[in-house]
Amino acid sequence: MPTWSNTITGSSEANRFDDQLIIITLKNKERKCYPEGVPTKVMRELIEENFGELIEFTYKQNSRLAFQVLGIFLMRYGAKMPEGIKKDILKYSRWEDEEDQLLNPLDKEDRFLYLTDFRDKIKNYIEVFNKILGNSKQTN
Fold first, then answer.
1. For residue range 69-97, what is the model confidence (pLDDT) as tens digits?
2. What is the rounded distance in angstroms from the CA atom of residue 50 to the CA atom of residue 44?
3. CB–CB of 74/51 below 8 Å?
4. Which is nearest to 93 in space by CA: 85, 82, 105, 103?
5. What is this structure's pTM?
6. 12-25 and 64-76 helices cross at what angle (nearest 10)?
7. CA dist., res. 69 & res. 93, Å (int)
8. How many whole angstroms from its chain centre is CA 108?
């Protein structure tokens, strides 16, 4: 049964998108090689290798939530987030597009807070590679 959440990744639909992003990322890798889970560094490298397919999948979903989940997915692993993708993630996470979706004032307030926090994190995101190099400037 589908579930809804005011958070970005708490719904069943968000989980489906996240699962698909992981499947695309790991498509040619044996999960058996990593019984304790794929190390973050390996995931970051695999995301880079499969970046085009991840982006293609996200666009094909025709869903604002898919872009939001992509943003969480890239940040979770410290992966690159090119400026164009960042702009699209921000475009598809605008409060103005969601504020009329919820009727309950408390749900609206929660969703607004989660979405605002998410957008702030996307705007300020610097991938791990730049952090390691000590580059604190975001390239535009």
1. 999 999 999 999 999 999 999 999 999 99
2. 10
3. no
4. 85
5. 0.85
6. 50
7. 10
8. 21
